[in-house]
Amino acid sequence: MLSRVADDLYWFGRYIQRAENTARAIVVHSNLVLDLPRNVAVGWSALVEIMGVDDLFRARYGTGYAEADVVRFLVLDADNPGSVASSLASAREILRTVRESMPHETWEHINNVHLILQEGGERLLTRSRRQDLLQHVLDAALMTYGILIASMSHDVGFQFMRLGTNLEQADMTTRIIDVRTSSLIKPRAADEALRPFQNIQWMSVLNSLTAYHMYRRHERARVRGTAVLRYLLQDREFPRSVMFCLNMIGATLPKLPPSRAAERALERTGAVVRDANIERLVESGLHDWLDEVQVGIGKLHEAIAASYFKA
Predict the structure, then answer these.
(1) What is the pTM of this model?
(2) d(CA 253, CA 184)
(3) Beta strands in the chain (DSSP E)
(4) SS3 of 30, please?
(5) 242 and 234 Cβ atoms separated by less than 8 Å
(6) CB-side exposure of 172: number of CA atoms within 13 Å?
(7) What pLDDT shows up at residue 83?
(8) What's the rounded Cα separation, in Å, for the pair 134 and 111?
(9) How would you class 24 by CB atoms within 10 Å of its CB: exposed for 0-12, middle for 13-18, buried for 19 or more?
(10) Which residues contact 135 (CB under 8 A, 6 or more apart)?
(11) 10 contact partners, CB below 8 Å, separation of at least 6
(12) Least crowded by CB within 10 Å, which of 32, 65, 169, 200?
């Protein structure tokens, strides 16, 4: 397989996963705002922080983080490379060049939601219509996964796409945990009004990763912070946990040409996650540890790119 095609398939997996996670984060945050009392202020800056595009947002919209600006920036802004529209446009462009490698239905679903975003524009971002728009994105992403898993040959191209999908999800899971739990683990004075609603906030963290029902089935107990963190970081069976994603990458690499650099990067990052004592990290500082995991994921991406995509 040409390195260019492998690179495209890898990034196709990442772009679809990114669009899905961004859309779900907005839906869950909107629901959180509705679940909390009106006198409890919940800002929208956390969504921008999760995506790691604070500087770009402030350059375009200032420091106000108004709801309408944040939603527009994360859904439609073409200048934001991580927006839903940008991610789907990039995935669609990749499909144009590798359509022979994927089932035809994949193009239909991605192109359809791309056109909805392009033609609907600002009028679909109002509170009354936003949920339907984002649900279209979620449905298209999940339908695409189903089609590819069920109908695409699980050859080397599929393996590169699976690498991208799992790496993107591991990265997004750490980002969501880092930003959404900081005020829950070490509340600041400004967060005091939210203290009585911590249970709702922990449920929101789970919902951001479609993990609430599986967490309750796994734990069979009320939502507890350390249990939530352990489940989302170290569970080996939940598809969006960091450990599951790293294990999937580990299962994929042997099906590709050998890359000792990628294997070493995966071993180091996997050991950091697997051996972590969550209770101790909550007490000593989860943020620094998550930074270490994110750096490890970044180095794993660099090793994969250097091994397979550099012509």
Answers:
(1) 0.92
(2) 37
(3) none
(4) helix
(5) yes
(6) 27
(7) 95
(8) 15
(9) buried
(10) 27
(11) 160, 161, 163, 164, 304, 308, 309
(12) 200
